[in-house]
Amino acid sequence: MVKTALIYPPISDPTSGYHSLCCLAGYARQFGFEDIDIIDSNIDAWLYNVTPEQIGTTMQYINERYAQLQALEEPTPIEQMELYYALKVRGMNFARELPAALHTFRDETEFFDYRLYTSAVETVMLWMDALSLKGFPGQFRGFSLATSGFFNIFSSLDMRDTRITGVISEPFADYYRNELIPGIITGGYSLVGISITYVAQIPFALSMAQHIRKSCPEIRIIFGGTAVSDYWKYILNKNDFYAVFDSADACIIGEGESALVSILQAMEHDRPLPASPNIALHPRVQAVSDTSPLEIKYEDICSFPAPAYSKLPWEKYLSPYPFIYYSPSRGCYWNKCTFCDYGLNTDSPTSPWRQYPLDKIMEDLRMLAVTYKYIYFSVDVLSPALLLKLAAAILEEGLDIRWGAEIRLEEYWTPERCDLLHQSGCTAISVGFESGNQRILNLIHKGTKVDRLQETIQMFSEAGIGVQIMGFTGFPTETVDDALSSVHFLQQNSRYWTFGGLGQFVLTKGAIIAKEPERFRIQDIRPFEGEDVAWRLYYSEQEHLLANSSRCGSKELTEAKTSLRTNQFDRPWVGGVDTAHSMFYHDRFGSNILEVISGDNSAAANENEIMELNGHLIEDHYYLPVHKLFNKKSLDNILDASDREGKAVTAQNITELLGQWTSEHSSYPQPKEQQLFVRRDGTLFPFPVPMIEFLRKFEHGLSLTELLEQSGQHEFHTKLWQHCISSRFLRPKRPPAAET
Length: 740
Hints:
Blueprint: E1 4-8, H1 20-29, E2 36-40, H2 41-48, H3 52-70, H4 77-89, H5 94-106, H6 108-111, H7 114-132, H8 156-159, H9 162-169, H10 173-187, E3 191-195, H11 202-215, E4 220-224, H12 226-234, H13 238-244, E5 250-252, H14 257-268, E6 279-281, E7 323-326, E8 329-330, E9 354-355, H15 358-368, E10 374-377, H16 384-397, E11 402-407, H17 415-423, E12 426-434, H18 438-444, H19 450-462, E13 466-473, H20 480-492, E14 500-504, H21 512-515, E15 522-527, E16 537-541, H22 555-563, H23 580-589, H24 593-597, H25 601-604, E17 611-613, E18 615-622, H26 632-644, H27 654-660, E19 672-679, E20 684-686, H28 689-696, H29 704-709, H30 714-726, E21 730-732
Parallel strand pairs: 1-2, 1-3, 3-4, 4-5, 7-10, 10-11, 11-12, 12-13, 13-14
Antiparallel strand pairs: 5-6, 8-9, 15-16, 17-21, 18-19, 19-20
Domain Radical SAM core: 318-555
Pfam families: Radical_SAM
InterPro entries: BchE-like, Cobalamin-bd, Elp3/MiaA/NifB-like_rSAM, rSAM, rSAM_horseshoe, rSAM_sf
């Protein structure tokens, strides 16, 4: 029997386990391969880093590095960015605050207290900033990774450079060495499969595989997952693909169920790894050099068993309840949108459309509902007719589940049908409305009408179902006025949707737009210079369209899009579309969810409530005013400028670009004392001494009543107290029991 470890690498959503490996393990079990363990190293690595010992080690490193940075007379831009992030995090008592945050996420009562929830999210997000100082400063975007900056994930030169992936992965290197590798050795595994769903996981997965290869050279290593398939699809030279994934014996490209079983069967009989469909063998393990195109096979999904969710470590996730992803279909039944580019398709926007029959879905749900109440149908889209039959069947059987799904805003929907979905447990849906301009919708070939979109969204909302809405601006030929009509559509219907907003259009090579550029009046299509994994494409618009184009975003459009934001946080937290936490809040608060998460902080406090600092104070000496230090915004400006020229920022050119950056200060002044308040979300506030002294009064907790007893300026201090609460400089003091 082949003992197998299937690993989900950092860095991704810590609130729930992803289901890809559960699907593979469940499928392989049908063929007798039951000795399969799932290692969710995404959550394991993060929890390893919040143990008291690791918190202490990390903060010791940051303090030592901070002292070194302070001693520099002329810090470089990257050293300034290190200093900026060190200033943000070094005053936080993570040893106390991180355990409290974990308790909030896992405790039902605290989880639904949005003030406590907000503090918990901001604490762990600030910890990610702290961890970034062991890699590239500011490399994390919450629980994701910047795709470019000091490195570029879409540059094979960067990703094959073990020094770069090693630096990126350094925050988790101790976990690899001290937990993951010893566990693999003692587990006696013959095969390790690493599933990469998101491109943000690629550097960590590559570094992980290098550690495994070095420590366990006899183990077979395979990669798979959506991000690996995308890398294969978009890379310009397949030899460079193998150079990036050099630690692997093979990579599974596309759907992986049959491919994994083929590999397991070959290993069980001591045969070489097979050159089967969807299996890209590394040249070093190929019996005969093969330059023919890889054969891609699509699965008969109706033969799949239910995923093996029990193999996930549910007690470890940052949620009060288990939340599972379940995929009863693959591909898209519409399959016509001109911007769409999913899967390994060559002649259509998405992979072939396949869907479970109703009986199969109900068979799975009966079993799953015993253990899991919250289920998200993780698919491109579900057909309306099936959803309606499914809702009726759930009601008939009395299954007590809560579910969500992505749907198309078809004319099929009526108030009665929406109400049936809600009665069956549907708490929220997500919809791609794409645009509020009919001309753009027609170019997209969305098959929808703006006036009908409004009616459908309203019907779902009035049925008690949260509507999470997604669209974008910057589509070819879209003018600023066209884009503003999308903003106005969302504003006019703001009471009918909860989370979402407008993103930015990105052109990819598999989209119909890229294949028919003349139809969309674009030209000069090419990969960005420096990115040989051509996931995104540079293009130019015809000159007479440039003056009114929405592509670069006028100030008016940018501000209008920003004004749409209803949520404080994005994925994976409450406010992120289709997240576990958003589903829990939709289920608990229904149509009142926005009132709960956007309540007036000052109105919630009373004069006798003990308030404490929602952050920490810093007083120190350093050269530049904090807002003049090179920081994330400075780096983003470099990225934006390069993008406009069709050039990517990579490890190959970042040093030159940083050398061109100049601070507004022509010289470095003598060190001087600056007093800062760092809010829990990491925002730095340089305050005058009187404001610092006022905030200092709340370091250990103080009520307004107690403050006024010591003050001769009652009216002024009351207004300042209210300002500090509304600005989230102060928060209610946590009870001692919650801090343990």
